[in-house]
Amino acid sequence: MTSRPTLVLIATGGTIAAATTSSTDTTGYVAGTLPAEALLAAVPAIGEVADMRVEQLFNMDSRDMGPAHWVALAQRTRAVLDDPDVAGVVITHGTDTLEESAAFLDATLSPEKPVVLTGAIRPATALSADGPVNLYDAVRVAAQPASAGRGVLVCFGGRIFAAAGVRKADTTATNAFQAPPGGVVGQTDPVRYFAPPAARPDPLPLPESADRLPRVDILYVAAGSPPEALDHAVASGARGIVLALPGNGSVPEAWREPVARAVAAGVPVVRASRVGAGPVTPDADDAELGTLPAGDRPPSAMRVLLMLVLAQAEESAP
């Protein structure tokens, strides 16, 4: 008889833990109402895959997640992974800001054991609830030895994503998440990966508290958006700026001078894109203005990464 691995479910709330008074209501719910034990009880087949331990770290709507929650989640995940009896971690999370939490965990953890985030688009009480199958799939992924050494993963809608670059791309579809090319690393039926684990960068230091994370603002640049917004953000205390720009991170002419001023003042400016897919590649503006291209990461993930990089720089400054 093959022994089952021991996994820890860290629950944080979200739609996967939401309930309504009607089984046909998929929108009028309160997120983060059901306890983690109820999520497991709804999927008895999980007991055939792994022995589960349960922790309720938060039970909230992920729209209210912030840096303090990221730090607490990363600290708790690291502590759980240090237990030699634990083979991996599954984290349930609301989908609205799952990409930010995933980016933070992926940048600050270097887990040899699997860490898998999942959630749901529909509440647990809906006739068509997607949370149970997503949770079951996430447990199966975390229980697989092949999931080790791949960094933090997101399991959703039958697909396995690398956390870096994943983004919510649909408000109501049960396959709501997308990733850049190479970001979909596997599937769940059956659980398999398309390639061996790739080399990963060293993790960034995990701040002791959210107070150590500098403020970074995202500015959405629409046609004709006033560039004074950038000056205002810097003047009000932003230590870094991520611009959600048109196309391939194209800086409008009116924004060039404010961008150059910010960079000259020591405030890094990242060129990201407001487009839903595709990378922002290096161009002449980076050399001329001192901007940084976002690559495959969406503005939300770039903000998280820049916060961590700035925190590391401040910690190491004399």
Helix proportion range:
25-40%
The name of the CATH topology of the largest domain is Rossmann fold
Instruction: Report the portion of residues in β strands.
Output: 15-25%
On the 0 to 100 scale, the average pLDDT is 95
CATH class label of the largest domain: Alpha Beta
- Total of DSSP H or I helical runs spanning 4+ residues: 8
SSE sequence, one letter per element? EHEHEHEHEEEEEEEHEHEHEH
Strand order of the largest sheet: 2-1-3-4-5-6-9-10
Overall number of structural domains: 2
Query: Looking at this structure, what is the CATH superfamily of the largest domain?
Result: L-asparaginase, N-terminal domain
**End-to-end C-alpha gap:** 58 Å
Secondary structure blueprint with pairings:
Blueprint: E1 6-13, H1 36-41, E2 51-60, H2 67-81, E3 88-92, H3 98-108, E4 115-118, H4 131-143, E5 152-156, E6 159-162, E7 167-168, E8 177-178, E9 184-188, E10 191-193, E11 216-220, H5 228-235, E12 240-245, H6 253-264, E13 269-273, H7 284-289, E14 292-293, H8 299-316
Parallel strand pairs: 1-2, 1-3, 3-4, 4-5, 11-12, 12-13, 13-14
Antiparallel strand pairs: 5-6, 6-9, 7-8, 9-10
Helix pairs in contact: 2-3, 3-8, 5-6
Structure notes:
This protein has 318 residues and is α/β, with parallel strands linked by helices. The protein has 2 domains: 6-193, L-asparaginase, N-terminal domain (Rossmann fold, 3-Layer(aba) Sandwich); 214-313, Rossmann fold. The chain contains 8 helices and 14 strands. It has helices at residues 36-41, 67-81, 98-108, 131-143, 228-235, 253-264, 284-289, 299-316, and strands at 6-13, 51-60, 88-92, 115-118, 152-156, 159-162, 167-168, 177-178, 184-188, 191-193, 216-220, 240-245, 269-273, 292-293. The strands form 3 sheets. It has an 8-stranded mixed sheet with strand order 2-1-3-4-5-6-9-10, sandwiched between helices. Strands 11-12-13-14 form a 4-stranded parallel sheet, with helices on both faces. It has a two-stranded antiparallel sheet with strand order 7-8. α2 (67-81) crosses α3, α3 packs parallel to α8 and α5 (228-235) runs parallel beside α6.
